[in-house]
Amino acid sequence: MSERLRELAAAFNGSFAAMTPLERLAAMAEHVPGPVVFTTSLGIEDQMITHLIFSNDLPITVKTLDTGRLFPETYALWRETEEKYGRRIRAMYPRGEALEELVNDQGIDGFYYAPEFRKNCCGVRKVEPLGRALAGAAGWITGLRRDQSANRADMDFVGFDGARGLVKANPIFDWSRDAIAHFTKANGVPVNALHAKNFLSIGCAPCTRALRPGEPERAGRWWWEEETKRECGLHVDDAGRPVRADNHRPAEGDAAFERLPQ
Ligand code: SF4
User: Residues in the active site (predicted)?
Assistant: First the structure.
């Protein structure tokens, strides 16, 4: 099965460039021999994909990872999206016992104190639930874009995720943020209200800040960490190593930075 999926990923990777995002999603749904899951963070890229899946009734399950630390605006968008399309976005939650152990051990906001604490939190709240979200799937859709960071420029439209044993496809990989914003506006796709307040990449509330002028779009994520230690944890290379986010360290003086132990 793995070899078949690897070959399918290679074939898709060669053909995706000439296809529209909808055609790419439809091809995944039709040709991947098993369940296909789209994991959404409810960011603008993911909202475009959700729109294409729900509006065209594609047999792709849409799931989100509710870490318990999302912005109120994100929960409002989740509800608005379900109401608009009449479809459920399935929630994945952290394991209760693991979450209790994490918070009791390192504190409610332990992620600010050390990179390993942050990775522990992402591990319990995101990575482990993602594993369950993708269990049994043969295909995984994500909203990654090539121009989101230097690191992502090296990725492909479609790859074989050797660690999880599935075809991983990025159907809007070649789309710019501006083109996606135009699409969502033209098609009445609901988007997170925080995007209009300079939050371009939106994750958990305590770990996301608005961008300052001139910063790259993912600079507001885990901004207190050294650049070399920021790892998303959800996206891994073929050997299972986390793909590093490529952000810029902000200037000291940021309000949230100041409250950290120095
Ligand atoms: S982004 Fe922050 S709050 Fe969310 S899981 Fe990671 S460390 Fe925890």
Answer: 232 (nucleophile)
